[in-house]
Write a structure and sequence with these properties.
The complex is a heterodimer of chains A (269) and B (274). Chain A is built from 11 helices and no strands. In chain A, 72% of the residues lie in helices and 0% in strands. The two termini of chain A are 26 Å apart. Chain B has 274 residues and is α/β, with parallel strands linked by helices. Chain B folds into 2 domains: 191 residues, P-loop containing nucleotide triphosphate hydrolases (Rossmann fold); 71 residues, no CATH class. In chain B, helix 2 packs across helix 3. Chain B is globular, with a radius of gyration of 21 Å. The chains are: A mainly alpha (269), B alpha/beta (274). Chains A and B meet through helix 2 and helix 5 of A and strand 5, helix 2 and helix 9 of B.
């Protein structure tokens, strides 16, 4: 168990340049595909945010959440979702989409989940830029509380890598994994309090505590805390503990199966 | 002390599971892609691997480059090995230059090293002004030249070349041979997998003949090549029925009805055979 974790960690850390290059050129290739290139990295999340805002802000007339207006409040959580969600869907395909590489050269397979996450990190940065502009229109300006974003971003990256590690190997064993995950993504979005506030389910304490264990919620909550509430990292230590335990279990299991199957992938295609 | 051998095989076998025709039998047959191979390749030797179709040459190259694991036996490789793969890792949207950088990174080179080899690759691939065009605009010859050049500019101790020279025109093939000749003189071990007897005769010191997943002969180049040529002639002279018999005979030797399986194999098969 520890051997496999050490193996995955070492392989990732000793191949940082490889990870960087792969994601850089994947991004570049994506941009070359279209005429407008980089524009879509900004336009795509903006249009999605507008959709949700139209739906919930205008049609359903969602009221302010506490003292914060709905659009910035939603946006504060949505940035996390727009980072985590493609990480999950593309992450489980990380190994399978590189089949032509891993069958033709000696390649450290366990770095592939990290390349996917790094690639999405660039899109995340684009969306953050859009978000800062929208926040400024609502009178929310960057403050020193935003420094904690770094911690939550690291959390999000580690969680996404650990999850992709597990799902990408499972996807090699059975391609059904990806289908299952794609089908469940919308469900996951509505189960996570991104579009609704967790205070709305105060009546059901059991469900509320289950929702609070959701690792994605921990990150969403953390981002919002940096933007609006300013409670600090340690205020959410219970969710934080749950988050790290879940992430560690994912990492341990992910690296265990990665280690176990590392020479078998080619026979699994 | 320097090790004498570049590659050592001790009773190495590679097994694939075969699906049975009849769905009712859940216990599948298993098939030896490679069966009980034992040999040692000394350092600095150029070995040609011969064999008819389906005799396990490609599996051999995958096993040698440690892309695919082995099921039985022991394999010792002293040094860094690289499989010369032609079109892999080339991204159609990127330019030739970007592809050199990308493929270099895929192969695990450092940034500095990539800068060093760049010029060599560009010269060798002879793509000229197309360097800054997306690879999708390249002719297929250009693509393989680019892919091959990046591979050759790596500096592995053991080179595994699998049918690589069947692409490109005669001139380029000769260029590749010359380059490999150079590497040979530097004392690299080269494992050359090919159908082309003349090329093997020309280039290799020793040859290995694999037939039906088993090692038939390993020794001095001309001797093995002669025997192989004889066998091919003999096989071609057979009538169709006899050919079929010969194939079946070989096939039967490689199948194991249902041997002991490791847990992982069972698990894999359970997943695959639902």
């Amino acid at each position: 168990m520890f051997k496999s974790m050490k193996f995955v960690l070492k392989e990732n850390l000793s191949n940082l340049y490889r990870i960087y290059s792969i994601s850089k050129y994947e991004l570049l290739a994506d941009m070359r595909d279209s005429k407008l290139g980089l524009f879509w990295n900004f336009a795509n999340p903006t249009i999605q945010v507008l959709t949700y805002w139209f739906m919930f802000g205008l049609v359903f007339k969602k009221k302010n959440v506490g003292s914060i207006e709905y659009l910035p409040w939603m946006l504060g959580g949505m940035v996390v979702w727009f980072f985590i969600s493609p990480c999950i869907t593309n992450g489980c395909n990380a190994i399978f989409s590189k089949v032509n590489v891993i069958t033709k050269m000696k390649f450290p397979v366990s770095v592939l989940p990290a390349t996917v996450v790094l690639k999405e990190l660039f899109n995340h940065a684009c969306l953050m830029a859009v978000m800062v502009i929208i926040f400024a229109m609502y009178g929310i300006y960057p403050s020193w509380h935003w420094i904690q974003l770094i911690y939550y971003l690291v959390c999000a990256i580690i969680f996404a890598v650990c999850l992709s590690l597990t799902t990408s190997v499972l996807n090699m064993l059975a391609r059904d994994t990806r289908k299952l995950i794609l089908a469940c993504m919308r469900l996951l979005l509505y189960l996570t309090p991104v579009l609704w506030s967790i205070d709305q389910i105060n009546k059901y304490p059991l469900i509320k505590s289950i929702v609070k264990v959701n690792p994605i919620y921990y990150i969403v909550q953390g981002y919002r805390d940096c933007f609006f509430y300013h409670h600090g990292i340690f205020y959410y230590w219970k969710s934080g503990l749950a988050f790290w335990v879940i992430t560690f279990v994912l990492f341990a299991f992910g690296s265990f199966i990665m280690y176990k199957f590392k020479h078998k992938f080619i026979d699994l295609i | 002390m320097e090790q004498e051998y570049a590659v050592e095989f001790h009773h190495v076998s590679k097994i694939y599971a075969l699906k049975s025709k009849d769905k009712k039998y859940t216990d599948d047959k298993r098939f030896y892609a490679l069966k009980d191979l034992s040999f040692q390749i000394p350092k600095g030797e150029v070995v040609g691997i011969l064999g008819t179709n389906g005799s396990g040459k490609s599996t051999m190259s995958l096993v040698l480059s440690e892309i695919s694991g082995i099921d039985e036996g022991e394999m010792v490789v002293n040094g860094e090995q690289a499989l010369i793969a032609i079109n892999t890792g080339l991204n159609m949207q990127l330019t030739g230059m970007e592809n050199i950088e990308l493929k270099g990174a895929l192969l695990g080179l450092t940034k500095k090293r990539i800068e060093e080899i760049k010029q060599g690759v560009i010269d060798f691939a002879e793509i000229g002004d197309f360097l800054y065009q997306p690879v999708k605009k390249y002719s297929s010859g250009m693509k393989s030249r680019l892919g091959f050049s990046i591979n050759l500019c790596l500096d592995p101790d053991i080179l595994i070349v699998d049918e690589a020279l069947s692409v490109g025109d005669k001139g380029f093939a000769q260029k590749c041979i010359n380059k490999m000749e150079e590497l040979k003189n530097e004392g690299k071990t080269i494992i050359f997998i090919s159908h082309s007897l003349p090329q093997v005769r020309d280039f290799c010191d020793t040859a290995m003949w694999i037939e039906g997943g088993m090692l038939k002969e390993y020794g001095e180049i001309n001797e093995v090549c002669d025997h192989y040529a004889e066998y091919v002639d003999y096989y071609n002279a057979l009538s169709n029925d006899e050919k079929k018999k010969e194939r079946d005979r070989k096939f039967a030797k490689r199948v194991i009805p249902n041997g002991k399986t490791s847990f992982i194999d069972k698990f894999l098969r359970a997943i695959k055979n639902r």
